[in-house]
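Issue 218. Parser rejects a valid record. Input:
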Amino acid sequence: MAWVEKRNGGKVPVWRVIWWIDAPGGVRKKRYSESFRTESLARDYRNKVERDQTAGLTTDYSGGTQLFGDYAESWLRTRLVKGRPLAASTLDEYRGLLRRNILPTFECSQLRTISPTRVRSWLAEVVDQSGPDQAAKAYRVLRAIMSTATADELVARNPCQIRGAGAFSAPERPLIPTSIVLKLADAMVTIDCTEQHTDSSRLRAFVLLAGFGGLRPGELMALRREDVDPLHQTVTVDENAPEVAGVRVLGPPKSEAGRRTVSIPSRIMRDITDHLDRYTGPDPKDWVFTGPRGGPLRQNYLSKRWRQALGQVPEAPRGLRVYDLRHHAATLAARIPGVTTKEIMARIGHSSPRAALIYQHATAERDRRIADAMDADIADAAPAQIFGLQMASKNASGGAG
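Output the parser choked on:
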């Protein structure tokens, strides 16, 4: 049973809904809802509470008093997506969203006190302070946490009920022609005199494989010699090595669809093979891409070289990221006549709820045709420049090996 109680908290009266629920051990505790400004709103809420009681949806009072901050930390530790824990990069992203946008408002709030009204007010503040992109991401995290709390029967309803609040249309990433990708790859073949003649041509193959293979930067950083098959001109993605807070974290790809074998255009494969001979150790487990001292490639080194390469290619769009090379690969594949969306998704390792059947339709033969068609596009963009990493590297370094 629930009832409405009027309270005079100043000039404006306040109505509150009060009801009893059974806590563990048979102890009855009193629970108060949010305050309401009008009696009619309070009565509507009272009716909802009574409907929940009738349907058996009243929640554990002691559970609902948990602080959001404590529950969110537990949620991060136990969160599973398709039976797998959160990837290290995703976990780091969620912690950042919580720290910057969610915990300042809700960390010390009891779960049961987070109402739709508070969520709506919080969201408006985040949009104003951090922008719609951050607000949409933060809202999705808050909604997921409160959805789990609802499933755990700690709250009766998820308070995140704002339609469309988790959606944000990010600006289109710049589309770049094949000629720009090739120029950026060539720009990597430089000598930086400020670093004792460090040869950065070791990243030329990185740019080419990202721009025509569609691999994510973390997937490229995790490649080993055994993942590259020059005979069949393929690269197999089986690991991911993003950096989280400056720490290299080796693990599986972001999703099961990320595990894939990608056919590589033959002109690009020549550079990859050349790269293996120059920079990769002989052991099957040796890293394909390494830093100047021979260790695993690190993000700060890649970022520095990328900025230098962009500076040498004024035609490249401002703000172009290494990740945008993957976008180029997908766009180039989409232009090929007859290629299907599912084949493109399989090639770039994209996963979505509606893409469960992609592996049944994307065959190795069709993937090979995509790579062969890319060869023609590369030849058109650079007819006089038939790759060869050694030739480009020697020209830039004066013949140094």
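Fixed in the parser; the record now loads. Confidence is low (pLDDT under 50) at residues 191-197, 353-363.
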